[in-house]
Amino acid sequence: MNINKETLTLLQDKIKIIETVEELDLCLVGPVNLPIKQGDFQTTFQWYTWVKIDKNLSNEDILISLSHSNLAFGQQSSVLVYGDFANEEDALVRMHSICHTGDIFGSQRCDCGFQLHESMKMVVNHGCGAIFYLADHEGRGIGLFSKSLAYLLQEEGYDTVEANHALGFEDDSRSYEDAIRVLEVLRSKQVTLITNNPRKLAALKNHGLLAKDHVPLWGGLTETNEFYLNTKVKKSGHILEENPSLKV
């Protein structure tokens, strides 16, 4: 199907190509007004999404090839932006790894759904910030199918780290480089990260993007995820401060 000139004109200024030193560049699209309602909480974010593309493609090339790119067979990451993100001195940022079971189904095996929804509220209450939703991070980078196998091992007594290792994976193989490139396009000033994960802090520190250390995000503790949360602290080095409910 051909893309007509009117469509090209309407979308041209909503597409930005981010050049990288790697084999593929990034194509950033947005913003889109995205009204959100979760129980009593509601707001409107500015939504962006991005995808890896071949180098030297123009905006027109990308749009023309869209209908036969089979993007539905992969996952694309995105970011919700709130407030004057480019210009405010103080902005909160959450780098949130996709969790199909926790974010969508409300699984109590983890605290991911709680962290996603709570970070959205924190950004809005703060007045400025962004929540990056990283689609290639399922199961700390092992993918949804492998994560289901890891869950089966966990039901036999393995913790999350042991289960990943037993399947031949690293404990955590996630990369934040693409998200950081998008962050640098949307904002040149430093940010404060919402996280308990020292690896996320290190990734932003290496790019000089941290204004101050971090804002912790603990909560959503249940009987079914307490072992999971303790493993985060004991084996993955997650920062325990301001979480007296966990016993490690």
Order of helices and strands: HEEEHEEHHEHHHHEHEH
CATH homologous superfamily grouping of the domain at 34-45 and 76-236: GTP cyclohydrolase II
What is the count of β-strands?
8
Distance between the termini: 58 Å
Radius of gyration: 19 Å
The helix content, as a percent range, equals 25-40%
Uncertain residue segments = none
CATH architecture of the domain at 34-45 and 76-236: 3-Layer(aba) Sandwich
Largest sheet: 8 strands, mixed
The strand line-up of the biggest sheet is 1-2-3-4-6-5-7-8
Overall 3D geometry? globular
The CATH topology of the domain at 34-45 and 76-236 comes to Rossmann fold
Number of helices: 10
CATH class assignment of the domain at 34-45 and 76-236 = Alpha Beta
What share of residues are in beta strands? 15-25%
The averaged pLDDT comes out at 83
Q: Structural class given helices, strands, pairing?
A: alpha/beta
Description of the molecule:
- This protein is α/β, with parallel strands linked by helices.
- It has a domain at 34-45 and 76-236: 3-Layer(aba) Sandwich (Rossmann fold).
- It has 10 helices and 8 strands.
- The chain has helices at 5-12, 59-65, 100-104, 112-126, 138-141, 144-154, 160-166, 177-186, 198-206, 226-236, and strands spanning 15-18, 24-38, 41-54, 77-82, 92-97, 129-134, 191-194, 210-215.
- An 8-stranded mixed sheet has the order 1-2-3-4-6-5-7-8, sandwiched between helices.
- Strand 2 and strand 3 (41-54) form a beta hairpin.
- It is globular.
